[in-house]
Design brief:
Helix content is about 40%, strand content about 20%. The two termini are about 20 Å apart. The radius of gyration is 21 Å and the shape is elongated. The chain is built from twelve helices and ten strands. It has three domains: about 90 residues, no CATH class; about 45 residues, no CATH class; about 120 residues, no CATH class. The strands form three sheets. It has a five-stranded antiparallel β-sheet, covered by helices on one side. By secondary structure, the protein is an alpha+beta fold.
Length: about 290
């Protein structure tokens, strides 16, 4: 079935829009407009592969220089060559031809350019959007693959987190559980140590109020993490209401592997503070 997705950002938030496209594993282009600013976000099977805004401030050459992949003199030389080219070669192509960077450097810079643009989008609270099925960037563009969930999590980290949490989680009496992923769609989700620890408290039985009181991070920080997990589509409200004592933090943390058993098949996790959870989702049948 074709995805008829268009409307105003006041009615549907951008995290909700991105999640709808990801959940449907759709391919095409999401056009977003606010005043005279227009951004195009390209998807392939629910993953972001490119994004472009004519007025974007995250220029490729500057990102390469900031990451020390090239020097200021090399950037100036490439810009001058681009200005003198009758056929107007792309900056990245010129830098590769001059052997200042390789293809991996270019792809890394494009990924960062796309991510920075997407993060800035999440602050938009007005505008319009429309999704165009099966329309893609030109073959000249360097495409990447970026997880919608990671874009939402990192983008929301950069916003006014507590206000966002209070607007997202209006009822402290609700319970949450891990969200079932769509069959056949893998997830590559990055969470830091605090996000991982809050995830360990979610078992589909404790209320949000109980999670906040149990968490060693305090209510405000726990609320912001819960809101980000919800907006990223990693947790969802639970229908079940079970009261009782669920044990101490250590017991609940040890239960985490069981909670994840039918949700994802995780690879070994780096024990440093910043952890990357590389997962492949187990196909799950959800009973109504």
């Amino acid at each position: 079935m074709e995805l008829d997705l268009q409307g105003s950002i006041e009615r549907f938030t951008l995290p909700e829009i991105l999640q709808l496209i990801a959940a449907g594993r759709k391919s095409g282009t999401l056009g977003i407009q606010k005043d005279d600013s227009i951004v195009m976000v390209y998807f392939s099977s629910g993953e972001i592969i490119y994004s472009y805004g004519p007025r974007q401030t995250y220029h490729l050459g500057q990102l390469l220089k900031d990451s020390e992949a090239i020097t200021a003199d090399q950037l100036d030389e490439a810009v001058q060559l681009q200005a003198n080219e009758q056929n107007s070669k792309r900056l990245g192509e010129i830098l590769i031809e001059r052997k200042y960077i390789d293809r991996a450097d270019l792809q890394s810079a494009v990924r960062k350019q796309v991510e920075q643009l997407l993060y800035s989008l999440l602050s938009w609270d007005s505008g319009t959007f429309k999704f165009y099925e099966n329309q893609f960037p030109t073959e000249e563009e360097i495409t990447v693959r970026i997880s919608v969930e990671n874009v939402i999590l990192e983008g929301l980290r950069r916003l006014d987190e507590l206000n966002m949490a209070r607007e997202t989680l209006t009822d402290l009496g609700v319970t949450f559980t891990l969200a079932s992923a769509q069959a056949g769609r893998g997830r590559d989700v990055k969470m830091d140590a605090d996000e991982w620890n809050v995830m360990a408290l979610i078992d589909g039985r404790k209320t949000l109020r109980q999670i906040c009181s149990t968490s060693p991070l305090g209510k405000d920080k726990t609320m912001t993490i819960m809101a980000k997990l919800k907006l990223a589509g990693l947790i969802t409200k639970s229908d079940k209401t079970v009261s009782g004592d669920y044990g101490d933090l250590e017991t609940m943390t040890n239960r985490l592997a069981g909670l994840f058993e039918n949700y994802l098949n995780a690879r070994p996790v780096n024990t440093q503070k910043d952890r990357k959870i590389s997962t492949s989702v187990v196909e799950t049948t959800v009973e109504n």
